[in-house]
Amino acid sequence: METDLSARELCHAIGTAMESLQLAPLPQLLSVDASVAEDVRLVTDGIAYASIMLQQRAKQAQTDYVLAQLATAAQSTNSASLSPQTMAQVIDTLEKQPDMLPPEMLDTEHIRMYAKNCWNVFEKLVDLADKEEANRIIQGAIAQPMSIVEHNALAQLLIDRIGIVLPDTWFRYLNAVEASCRSQQPGSAQVHNVRLASKVFNHALDANSALAESMSIELCSFCLSYTQVKDATDLYRRVLNANRQNR
Fold first, then answer.
1. Angle at 136 between CA 189 and CA 180, to 5 degrees
2. Left if phi > 0, otherwise alpha if psi is -120 to 50, otherwise beta: which for 52?
3. Which of 122, 162, 167, 223 lies in disulfide reach of 207, CB 3.0 to 4.6 Å?
4. According to the model, what pLDDT value does residue 63 have?
5. What element of type H or E holds 158?
6. What is the pLDDT of residue 34?
7. Are 203 and 173 contacting, i.e. CB atoms less than 8 angstroms apart?
């Protein structure tokens, strides 16, 4: 004979049966939980330490790679420039680690080769340095005489960073321009160097009018050597007029 039970009656029956069971006390889980928590902490700390070590190794590997590439670029027997991709990697690493280069890799000979074989890296070294160091680096790249390609690149660098260029660098630049012009026969190459230097010094005078006085003799001598070039005669007049106004 089947008996239909209501939901309430069923719940009552189950409750009564549970009360009649002899259940053992529940185990103490506190110590187990603490042990698990400690294990989790150890694993987490281990993962964090391993991550730090991997990052440090990756950073050191990138540093070693950059130093090796720059060492190759600085070899006097190396005539090949760094590839654009390699230069991008070097620049990215220098931005993240601006003090990574040892002093011997920033001497004049190294600087000159960086300017020759990886100009973009050379520019980054200038930009990362303080004012005094930036001028030392720029001066290290000023060759006597300069080729037209070298002069073009240097002139643009000076114009773009006109605000940080110190007087000693301007004198070094002018001496290099004069040496370059003297090494060339009269013609388009010489005229190009004179015009380019005149353009650079006009920008310099715009930024620092005091140069008209401090470099008056040197600038006038240079301009008078190339009076056939209009840019030089215009610069000569500007220097003279500036000095008259300052008297």
1. 15
2. alpha
3. 162
4. 82
5. helix 148-160
6. 61
7. no
